[in-house]
Amino acid sequence: MFDSLSDRLQGIFGGMRAKGRLTEEDINAAMREIRMALLEADVNFKVVKDFVEKTKERCLTADVLDSLTPAQNVTKVVLEELTNLLGKTDSKLVFGSSLPHVVMLVGLQGSGKTTAAAKLAYLLRSQNHNPLLVACDVYRPAADQLQTLGDEMGVRVYRGAGDDPVKIAKEGIQDAIDSLRDVVIIDTAGRLHVDDQMMQEAQDIKAATNPDQVLMVVDAMTGQDVVNVAQAFAEQVDFDGVIMSKMDGDARGGGALSIREVTGKPIKFISAGEKPDSLEEFHPERMAKRILGMGDVISLIETATKLQEEELAAEQEERMLRAELNLEDFLDMNRRIRKMGGIGKLVSALPGGDKAMSQGQVDTKALDRMETIIHSMTKEERMKPDILNGSRRARIAKGAGVTVTDVNQVMKKFNETKKLMKQYMPAMDVPVKKGKKGKKGKKKRGLPGFGGMPGMPGMNPADMKEFQKMLDALE
Fold first, then answer.
1. Could you tell me which residue, 401 or 70, shows the higher pLDDT?
2. Cα dihedral: 203, 205, 209, 212 (round 10)
3. 88 compared with 317, residue with greater pLDDT
4. So what's the architecture of 101-286 in CATH?
5. Residue 66 burial by CB count (10 A; 0-12/13-18/19+): exposed, middle or buried?
């Protein structure tokens, strides 16, 4: 979504770094470029004006201009101001002490509200909650859609009877009490535009259910118009935060950059994609870094850590600790990469990754070809890669519909990964399990890697070059 803005800002900072020393005239020229970039991204003009004024004032101080690295300091100032624009701190769901907790979703029709309700239920369930979805949109087939999504995710949906959304909402809360659900997510009706009937209905449901949190779902694709809609809801329903949907679209992103400053309401979640796990908590600083081309490795590490904790089997873990990988392990690594969003998401999280993706420098189909080749091998060949001689590789290539060179490339990448793991074995930080009754080995620091590949939890900035090597070995 922010590709165009990100390219413009990175180009501006690249020109500043080339100059070494900066003058007041250089700062003024850069601020003009930043102003134009933000306006072209459809950011609210008042927001742009305030942002540029604050940034310019900070950049013109002696601490910046007289420093040894003024361009880096300007980038730091812009990062901090951009983070402030998106929200100074992370904003999480806030629940009261009484059960069940109630979350009410509001928004226009077509904003992705029903889908966001289901995704939120999926997220809360992964955090050890037991949610209930309540379908209060009685005017269109949204209740059917919510039921379908709930069935797919294994989340109970209360639909009630009749066409009174306030009554359905109250009955839904009672159903949650009866079925021992600790969170109720109410999906309300929307309209194609803001009208009195929709607002009154939302107010009535809010008064009847006394929700812990009211979240407005907005479509990031609508650009700056999102701000006007959000202001109308803020005045009449007084919501607590925003879920920004369709962040994977090709809109310019002005709404996401404007809404916090104009309405005073924080973005709590963002959604990019249709998968149930595509809703994630919004982190202002991480988003600001992504926009400035600095990547978002922290989110990547968190995802990898979660997958590692959930899935890494003891037997495979010990093989990895000894750097005795086989091609079955390699297949499992690829599967974990897919669960993290694939090669594209991994690369996008690295500094400069978004630009590399937009320029087509990353082969996102590499995993597919690799898996096809490995699946064309016998079980013995996958477990003992050393037996792959010339005739076996020729047979594998024929079975996979590729050339022998392609098979050789896969084996080269596999051996490079294995070599990297062996090289960094002394830095490992993964607990070793010695059988069902054995004691766990002590933890060490951790290898650079990701997901099923060891060491992502222990990765720090000093590991980034090694992490890039690991990525290169898998592409």
1. 401
2. -60
3. 88
4. 3-Layer(aba) Sandwich (3.40)
5. exposed
Beta strands in 335-388 (DSSP E): none
So what's the pLDDT on residue 119?
Answer: 92
Per-residue pLDDT, averaged over 328-345, amounts to 68
* Identity at 355, one-letter amino acid code: K
More confident residue, 171 or 433: 171
Query: Rounded distance, CA 441 to CA 94, Å?
Result: 39
Q: What is the pTM of this model?
A: 0.63
How high is the pLDDT of residue 89?
Answer: 73
∠ Cα 133 139 142 (to 5°): 40
Q: Which amino acid is at 221?
A: M
407-to-331, 365, 372, 445 alpha-carbon distances in Å: 14, 15, 10, 34
Q: Is residue 459 over pLDDT 50?
A: no
**16-to-13, 28, 56, 356 alpha-carbon distances in Å:** 5, 12, 14, 21
Query: Strand, helix or coil at 136?
Result: coil
Residue written as token pair 């080995």: 441
* Rounded Cα–Cα distance for residues 156 and 109 (Å): 23
In whole angstroms, give the CA distance from residue 186 to residue 175. Answer: 13
pLDDT of 434 reads 43
Going by C-alpha positions, the residue among 344, 268, 360 that lies closest to residue 300 is 344
What whole-number distance in Å separates Cα of residue 83 and Cα of residue 392? Answer: 55
Mean pLDDT of 193-197: 75
The Cα 282–Cα 267 span in angstroms is: 6
Q: Return the ∠ at Cα 161 (arms to 160 and 167), rounded to 5°.
A: 70
Residue of 250, 262, 191, 189 lying closest to 223 (CA atoms): 250
Structure-token match 């803020």, residue found: 234
Q: Which CATH architecture has domain 297-474?
A: Orthogonal Bundle (1.10)
CATH of 3-86, one of 3.40.50.2300, 3.40.1190.10, 1.20.120.140, 3.90.1300.10: 1.20.120.140
For residue range 215-259, list pLDDT tens digits in order. 999 887 776 677 778 888 888 888 888 898 877 765 556 777 788
CATH 1.10.260.30 placement within the chain? 297-474
**pLDDT at residue 168, as a whole number:** 93
Encoded tokens for 418: 């294995």
Least confident of 28-42, 183-197, 417-431: 417-431
